[in-house]
Amino acid sequence: MTAQTSADVVIVGSGASGSALAARLSRTRKRVLILEAGPARQNRDLVSSALWGRRLKWGGSRVKEMGRTPIGHAFNAGYGTGGSALHHYAVWPRLHPEDFSMQTRFGRGLDWPIHYEELRPYYDVVQTEVGLSGDAVREIWRPPGAPYPLPGVPLFPQGELIQRGFTKLGRATSPIPLAVATLPYRGRPACLWDGWCDAGCPIGALANPLTIHLPDAMRHGARLVNRATVVRITCTSDGTRATGVEYVDEAGERRMIEAAIVILAAFAVENPRLLLASRSAAHPDGLANSSGLVGRYLMAHGAALIYGLFDTPTEPHLGATGGQLLNQDHYPKLTHAASQAFGSYQWLIAQAVKPVDLLGISNSRADLYGTRLHDFMRRAARGFAMMGAVIEDLPAKNNRVELADEHDRFGVPLAQVIHDAEPESDALWRAALNDGIAIFHAAGAADAWAGPRGSMHIMGGTIMGMDARNSVTNSFGQTHDVDNLFIAGPGLFPTSGGVNPTFTVHALASRTADYLEQHYSRLTA
């Protein structure tokens, strides 16, 4: 087959934002080409096992991580069809109104160039498109929006037991909002609740690119090329317009694609890496980097993990990897004078968990081995429980992606990531640990302990804003410096909030698709 050499729209990356934009734009008869660096996958290829789940993680060029609180790129990123959305846990809360105006309201962080009400209709459209489950009445912290199209997830013994702790302390819980079908929905089956979300979902109950947007895009003529590693965005000599991309194919051949619109949807580290590596005489500091902010304000939520053992059966293998219940009592951004903590956090309660692997039961007690580990596992297989807090990471300019001196096999400088959580974010993580232990004791846990700090959900690095002095793109992901170059995904976030980002990623992509449809002729003139 002859390699394609041109497209109306070329999209780098087949994850959440790339696939959603491909589906929308291909419906308008645009020639859409998606370039994915990783291998091809379909739902029927997925296998429910811890070993398989690892195959879905990052497998591209090495990312050098530095700093006191690493972002955990290898765990959080994906590689192959569907990107990191293939192994995501489908926890889809909305950002809250205050997340969009942090600097104005609290004198911390940054402001978004949009407010919640501008994104609200897109949240509503997307949740119907993918089949979001939840209970908008019981989710008392939820910002305004349409009711969920599907009922909430079922409650299993682990969730029931932990819920008692929240109730005893006067705290509310609700079904966790999950992009998982609790009933058959638009040709998709209901979930089996066997707890293998992080290995992909072969039956299609979990909303991800393989199930929702990529099939739609292909039906409307979009093409997906795997093992196509983009190494450079090409531009006109004056640097005012992107002309396409250069990539290396599976055979190691360098190829060029000409495109009227270029969209970078390769996640929060690879997007700035590509921009910085695409420097030229017109853009000596990197493409779309007149602000000097490409790679800056990188964020990753802190993970506060709480574990416990109960004397009654918890059946911890049942449910969804994302959890069964939600609590956002600590979402209001209040400064706690005693601890210096600031920001939001939420509890994701009663995750389905297996005996082994990174988030498995055995790793919750990495200090045990031999007979003590065997004794612990016998007890934990019957009565283990866990929950995790998503801790807001305040944006800091010095947390960044930059180019390393080393190069990958394609000749592109490696990404070097520096991340140190702000003191107020650190303090919030510690406060959440104390809160979680208290909840487990209130629930009647025979033993409760906390895990080490983890990182989840990489955001920032190509932030949106009002102009090129303080941001890389406008609110549609359009770069200030190059009109026909767009960025999609969580890299656009100026702040992280305290919720999982994928729902907001989809809402932003839907809004960008509207903008591209309305302004395509002007953008490509």
Molecular structure report:
With 525 residues, this protein is of the alpha/beta class. The protein has a single domain (6-523), classed as 3-Layer(bba) Sandwich (FAD/NAD(P)-binding domain), CATH 3.50.50. The protein is 24% helix and 19% strand. It has 11 helices and 17 strands. The chain has helices at 16-26, 50-55, 73-76, 102-106, 116-130, 157-168, 213-219, 267-277, 371-383, 423-442, 502-523; strands at 6-12, 32-35, 63-66, 174-175, 223-225, 229-235, 242-248, 254-264, 299-309, 325-327, 345-349, 384-391, 400-407, 413-418, 447-450, 454-459, 485-487. Strands 1, 2, 5, 6, 7, 8 and 17 form a 7-stranded mixed β-sheet that branches. A hairpin with a 6-residue loop joins β6 (229-235) and β7 (242-248). α5 packs across α11 (502-523). It is globular, with a radius of gyration of 22 Å. The model has no long low-confidence stretch (mean pLDDT 96).
How would you summarize the topology of this molecule?
Elements: E1 6-12, H1 16-26, E2 32-35, H2 50-55, E3 63-66, H3 73-76, H4 102-106, H5 116-130, H6 157-168, E4 174-175, H7 213-219, E5 223-225, E6 229-235, E7 242-248, E8 254-264, H8 267-277, E9 299-309, E10 325-327, E11 345-349, H9 371-383, E12 384-391, E13 400-407, E14 413-418, H10 423-442, E15 447-450, E16 454-459, E17 485-487, H11 502-523
Parallel strand pairs: 1-2, 1-8, 2-5, 3-14, 8-17
Antiparallel strand pairs: 4-10, 6-7, 7-8, 9-12, 9-15, 9-16, 10-11, 11-12, 13-14
